[in-house]
Amino acid sequence: MDDKTRHILECLEEDARTSHAMIATLTGLTADEVSKKIKDLEEGGVIRKYKTVIDWDMAGDEYVYAIIELKVTLERKLGYQALVERLYKFPEVRSVRLLSGQYDLSLTVCGKSMKEVAFFVAEKISTLEQVQHTTTHFVLKTYKEDGVILYEQDHVTRLPVTP
Question: Are 80 and 104 in contact, with CB atoms under 8 Å apart?
Answer without folding.
Answer: yes
